[in-house]
Amino acid sequence: MEKHRGFPGRLPGTDFQFTIRRGHKDGIATEITERVRYPDRRPPDKRADAGFMQALWEQFGDQPFVRGNLDAGRLSWLFGREVIPAEDPFDPTSYDALLKINVAVARVSFPEIDGMR
């Protein structure tokens, strides 16, 4: 499992996790699934999504990246919209799966993120 050096482990001042410390012993990662973000989500949850997207953008930009130690739960809130598979076929249970930011969708969803404009 690739560890993304310099990537924040969590949203500062909160318990919203962005990375995991170690992978499963069997080498199969928690599956990434597409989660529905309802408009009435709590403000802290929305800040966590924006903070995670900001960290992804600063670390990877518009380039494909390996899932590695990124938290499956946090990725799932963005998956299928702002974060999409960068390979076909895509294995949602692989630590080596390639992902990328769908910049056009991310700009609309998170207009407050600098550098994405």
Kindly summarize this structure in a few lines.
The chain has helices spanning 43-60, 72-76, 103-109, and strands spanning 65-66, 83-85, 98-101. The chain is of the alpha+beta class and 117 residues long.
What report would you give on this structure?
The chain is an alpha+beta fold and 117 residues long. It has helices spanning 43-60, 72-76, 103-109; strands at residues 65-66, 83-85, 98-101. The chain is 26% helix and 8% strand. It starts with 42 loop residues before the first helix and ends in an 8-residue tail after the last helix. The mean pLDDT is 90.
Keyphrases for this structure?
single chain, 117 residues, alpha+beta, 3-stranded antiparallel beta sheet, 3 helices, 26% helix
Shape: globular
Kindly state the mean pLDDT as a whole number? 90
Order of helices and strands: HEHEEH
Intertermini distance: 32 Å
Task: Classify the secondary structure makeup into a structural class.
Answer: alpha+beta
Percent strand equals 5-15%
> Unreliable runs, pLDDT <50, ≥5 residues?
none
* Tally of alpha and pi helices: 3
Largest sheet: 3 strands, antiparallel
The total of beta strands comes to: 3
